[in-house]
Amino acid sequence: MILTITLNSALDVTYRLAAVRWHDANRVEEVRRLAGGKGINVARVLQALGHQAVVTGFAGGPTGEEVRADLAAAGLHDRLVPIAGETRRTVAVVETGAGGGTTLLSEPGPHVTGAEWRRLLEHVGGLLGGAEAMVVSGSLPPGVPPDGYATLARQAAAAGVPVLLDADGEALRRGVAGRPAVAKPNAEELRRATHARDPVAGAEALRRAGAEAVVVSLGHHGLFACTPEGAWRAAPPERVAGNPTGAGDAAVAALAVGVAGGQPWPRRLANAVALSAAAVRAPLAGSFDAAAYRAYLEQVQVAPLSADEEALCRW
Questions:
Q1: Which residues lie across from 29 on neighbouring strands?
Q2: Where are the alpha helices (DSSP H) in the chain?
């Protein structure tokens, strides 16, 4: 079982229309409402890959009940902790016409009390016994300590469970102090966390701060990884058009499977790139185009970093 933690869960509302006329009225062609948040998206991908995933984190109010109802409908294992505050919503506006893109609006999330945070930690402790890996991802809701992810990572490490951390800003900077097995920022998140102009140097900085390995998403260019076993770059066979909202979550799901199964790093990275690209081909975060995934997996190119780049990853 892979445990996914979404402290700032959400109800994801997706509007699809040919084109948006900003500052004017728009007629939406299609609306979807799904349980969301990065860890929940990871759990959906894991389930589609045939792996058991357990979802925990916080949920509250009528929106939280809608999130839980959708998890039940999807057959996901819901172990969310109830809170008094109202679960947030996110709105993705997807333009389906030529040259269209996706605009995402995210609410900040409910305030979490000290008692609710302590209840979550106790709850996670009870779930770790059956976990092969734990994913902590997304933003921290108001009230959760800034080092909340580091606390969760230390808790998992004490139980012998490897942690994958996917966060931004202060949550990432402080989270790596918990010594996660993998930290997975994208290039912009890495720059914000380390202020390094060179992404390989930024990855080295996160490893020095505590992360065992760092995998950096580079959008349509693929990703690179700095690990104790070596450093690699992995690239998809083509630039994929579509909805990139859940691509990073798909990559995290692939990495979690690799960590739990002890796969060699090049295989983990090939899976992460192929699954991420296949997720862009799917209309909603937490899903992927299975046929595209199988095709891309045979075509992903994984190569060692140059000698100079790899030297930056070793310390």
A1: none
A2: 38-48, 61-74, 114-127, 148-158, 169-175, 187-194, 199-208, 247-261, 265-280, 290-297, 307-313
d(CA 234, CA 274): 10
* Amino acid identity for residue 65 in this structure: E
Measure the CA–CA gap between 92 and 281, rounded to whole angstroms. Answer: 16
Alpha carbons 217 and 250: distance in angstroms, whole number: 11
Q: Do 42 and 93 form a contact (C-beta atoms < 8 A)?
A: no
Tell me which DSSP letter residue 130 carries: G
Q: What is the pTM of this model?
A: 0.91
Q: Name residue 14's beta-bridge partners.
A: 32, 92
| Residues designated catalytic | 249
For residue 39, which of 14, 69, 67 has the smallest C-alpha distance?
67
What's the chain's Rg over C-alpha atoms? 19
- 13 in Cβ contact with 66 (< 8 Å): no
Fold of 2-313: UDP-N-acetylmuramoyl-L-alanine:D-glutamate ligase (3.40.1190)
16's tokens: 């699809």
Domain residue spans in the chain? 2-313
Residues forming a β-bridge with 91? 13, 105
* Mean per-residue pLDDT pooled into runs of 10, the chain (315 residues): 97 92 94 94 96 97 97 96 96 86 88 98 96 96 97 97 96 96 95 90 94 93 92 88 83 97 95 93 81 88 76 54
